[in-house]
């Protein structure tokens, strides 16, 4: 059991906004004082550039910066800190891969495979790459329960041709219907930012690599890493990407973890300062990774402060984070059913073991934006829209939805306030 009262005290926003019911951590999480203080410490005490200066405050900044790389590497059990590349966010990590890796290995006639439940950041860069080089862009469908449709003999890629299946056990994957020898890249999310579905990533990767040992598998862990323990070596992926700001860290920092050998073989993404080794009039040479991918001055203070977010999560324990969210999700689903039976449709798996603390729903015939607006009037923060997952909303046959998401500072009272807010919505809009 998490002690939410004690946790909340460590998030200064609740002192400034005591009535805040923050249910939008899927968009970005709130920030603990320890992380904010570290950011201030950098700007107040050693706000020099990294790698360049030989004077003490620059050396201190460099040391702190590289310590975060070590802590991130340990947090996800990377082989070495050199496998951690700092980017601006998940979106940039994925674009980096589409440019530096995708444009090197994908050619006309090849295939890129992704899923219908992706955030646009893991959809559009690959769609554009496929169309540029003339590769096939295959999209794995979901079934009616919000699981990836990986178990059907006749997996269809066409959105108009959907088969519903009931087997949601992570057995008997039928990936041979999707992955072929021509598939160069399989890129998919660990947790859906709309359905909350936790995909059986380890099993999918293992199956995909059995069918095509040369396939590169990229995991978008933006919604997974804040909530569940990730061990990149155990997963067996080639690349895993995520953002600091969704896991209590500052904005402006993303992570790209990749296998050292693959990072070495990849082209740089951006060229300029920091990433070069030597520059002549007719040619340049580049540093080894990760620095080869970190052109220009990075978000120094933010990278430095990011480690405090990881320390905070470690102090709670990722297993307890997951357990807490499961409990809240269970409670919310039950109370929604009791209070609004037949009026609220919740998307995603009904089994809370298979989902994270994300509840996306539609409420009667009410427009999601109206629902969110009325809730906002009483300080309840939820999201309305397509949540950067338009193909998924098209598949679900809805233009938009309302999303409430839970994290370590939410408790049952927040769920109850949401329910009270929804009763008010009903009263106003009926
Ligand atoms: C699953 C998933 N992938 C990628 C992203 C993009 O993250 P960022 O905006 O930090 O680049 C998000 C953001 O919500 C997400 O939920």
Question: Which helices and strands appear, and what pairs or packs with what?
Answer:
Blueprint: H1 4-9, H2 13-16, E1 21-22, H3 33-45, H4 56-75, E2 84-87, H5 90-105, E3 111-115, H6 124-133, E4 136-140, E5 183-189, H7 201-211, E6 216-220, H8 232-235, E7 239-243, E8 254-258, H9 260-265, E9 276-279, E10 284-286, H10 300-316, H11 318-340, E11 344-347, E12 358-363, H12 368-376, E13 380-381, E14 383-385, H13 390-396, E15 401-405, H14 412-429
Parallel strand pairs: 1-13, 3-4, 3-5, 5-6, 6-7
Antiparallel strand pairs: 2-8, 7-8, 9-10, 11-12, 12-15, 14-15
The protein binds pyridoxal-5'-phosphate (PLP).
Descriptive report:
With 430 residues, this protein is an alpha/beta fold. It is 38% helix and 15% strand. It is built from 14 helices and 15 strands. The chain has helices spanning 4-9, 13-16, 33-45, 56-75, 90-105, 124-133, 201-211, 232-235, 260-265, 300-316, 318-340, 368-376, 390-396, 412-429, and strands spanning 21-22, 84-87, 111-115, 136-140, 183-189, 216-220, 239-243, 254-258, 276-279, 284-286, 344-347, 358-363, 380-381, 383-385, 401-405. The strands form 4 sheets. A 7-stranded mixed β-sheet has the order 2-8-7-6-5-3-4, with helices on both faces. Helix 3 packs antiparallel against helix 10 and helix 4 (56-75) packs across helix 10 (300-316). It is globular, with a radius of gyration of 22 Å. Mean pLDDT is 93; it is low at 153-172. Bound molecules: pyridoxal-5'-phosphate.
């Amino acid at each position: 059991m998490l002690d939410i009262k004690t946790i909340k005290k460590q998030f200064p926003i609740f002192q400034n906004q005591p009535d805040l019911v923050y249910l939008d951590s899927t968009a970005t999480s709130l920030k603990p004082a320890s992380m904010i203080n570290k950011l201030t410490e950098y700007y107040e005490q050693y706000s020099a550039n990294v790698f360049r200066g030989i004077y003490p405050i620059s050396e201190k900044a460099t040391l702190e910066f590289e310590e975060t790389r070590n802590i991130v590497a340990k947090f996800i059990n990377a082989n070495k800190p050199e496998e951690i590349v700092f980017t601006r966010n998940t979106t940039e990590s994925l674009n980096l891969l589409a440019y530096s890796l995708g444009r090197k290995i994908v050619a006309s006639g090849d295939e890129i495979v992704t899923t219908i439940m992706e955030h646009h950041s893991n959809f559009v860069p690959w769609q554009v790459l496929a169309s540029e080089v003339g590769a096939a862009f295959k999209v794995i469908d979901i079934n009616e329960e919000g699981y990836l449709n990986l178990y059907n003999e006749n997996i269809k890629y066409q959105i108009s041709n959907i088969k519903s299946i009931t087997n949601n056990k992570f057995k008997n994957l039928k990936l041979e219907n999707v992955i072929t020898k021509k598939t160069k890249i399989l890129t998919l999310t660990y947790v859906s930012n709309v359905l909350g579905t936790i995909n059986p990533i380890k099993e999918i990767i293992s199956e995909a690599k059995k069918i095509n040992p040369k396939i590169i598998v990229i995991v978008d862990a933006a919604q997974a890493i804040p909530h569940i323990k990730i061990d990149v070596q155990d997963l067996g992926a080639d690349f895993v990407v995520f953002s600091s700001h969704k896991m209590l860290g500052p904005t402006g920092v993303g992570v790209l973890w990749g296998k050292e050998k693959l990072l070495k073989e990849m082209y740089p993404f951006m060229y300029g300062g920091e990433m070069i080794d030597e520059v002549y009039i007719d040619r340049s040479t580049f540093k080894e990774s990760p620095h080869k991918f970190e052109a220009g001055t990075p978000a120094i203070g933010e990278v430095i402060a990011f480690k405090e977010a990881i320390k905070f999560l470690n102090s709670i324990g990722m297993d307890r984070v997951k357990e807490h969210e499961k409990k809240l999700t269970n409670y919310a689903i039950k109370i929604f059913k009791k209070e609004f039976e037949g009026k609220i449709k919740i998307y995603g798996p009904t089994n809370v073991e298979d989902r994270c603390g994300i509840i996306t729903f539609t409420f009667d015939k009410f427009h999601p934006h109206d629902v969110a607006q009325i809730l906002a009037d009483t300080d309840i923060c939820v999201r309305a829209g397509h949540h950067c997952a338009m193909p998924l909303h098209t598949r679900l046959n809805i233009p938009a939805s309302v999303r409430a998401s839970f994290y370590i500072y939410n408790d049952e009272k927040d769920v109850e306030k949401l329910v009270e807010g929804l009763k008010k919505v009903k009263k106003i809009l009926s």
